[in-house]
Amino acid sequence: MPRPTRRAFAIIAGLGLLAPASLRAQGTATETRAGAILVTQPWSRAAMRGGSGAAFLTLRNTGTTADRLLGASTPAAGKVELHSMVRDGDVMRMREQPAIDLPPGQQVVLRPGGLHIMLLGLAQPLDRGATLPLTLRFERAGEVTVQLAVQAAGAAGLPAMGAGHSHTH
Length: 169
Ligand SMILES: [Cu+2]
Known about the structure:
By secondary structure, the protein is mainly beta. It has a single domain, classed as PCu(A)C copper chaperone (Immunoglobulin-like, Sandwich). Helix content is 9%, strand content 47%. The chain has 1 helix and 11 strands, in the order αβββββββββββ. Strands 1, 2, 3, 4, 5, 6, 7, 8, 9, 10 and 11 form an 11-stranded mixed beta sheet that branches. β5 and β6 form a beta hairpin. The radius of gyration is 15 Å and the shape is globular. Bound molecules: copper (II) ion.
């Protein structure tokens, strides 16, 4: 759990970094930058209070130095873990990861069936159409807060995903 001072810093940093974010025409996707790390397509799925949910997003390391996602936090969940999916016989199981590697110049996609950020012990329901803040903590890039767009319970991604990718700055 971040100390209050650290949380306050994260919020301030988040606000500063969210300012230049560009909105798509649909308004469903934003870009958020933390140092060399570009965060896009932050989303989640509808879930019940007391249950668990998952956060998905795309991380691109635009720098020349390796970074790592070390963890995340949100007021909406009692605990947040980094998970991967591993095959165990005929079933896929979730496994906690200490960190997610972000090699320079590469993109890492967190998505259903793969790497994801697990939200455990939801303090509130995640309602479709709502947004919830998620603060990401990187080894080098520091902390940044993104807004997860909550989709339907069985959604595979954001409505705009796969519709091309063209951002101008
Ligand atoms: Cu999980």
